[in-house]
Amino acid sequence: MIFGEDDSQPRQPQGGQQQRQQQIRLDISQMDTSYANFFAITGSPDEIVVYLGANSPLPNVAEPIVRLSNRVMLLPQNAKRLLMALQETVKQHEDRFGPIEIGPMPRPPQQGQK
Predict the structure, then answer these.
(1) Dihedral of alpha carbons 48, 41, 30, 93, sign
(2) Would you say the pTM of this structure is higher than 0.70?
């Protein structure tokens, strides 16, 4: 079971074949937690890389520094699985708590402006 997933209903394999589900135990004893309000994504044919960090904007700073804290490297197939899991998680969150509003991204100040 993944955190937040309803495991009361077993998943039916596609194609009518019976498959035995593999049980996975999650060990969180050594887990670190990072806060991220910034991400950047890049990739190649063989991998997709997600950079995570925290942006703490300061007044009158034209070029803020974003401290990157984590880099997650994924096979494209696993990135797609993550995308699908995030889509479902956001849908469930909105069903429970209401729509998530996304405002426009703030524009960086132009050179010579404050």
Answers:
(1) negative
(2) no
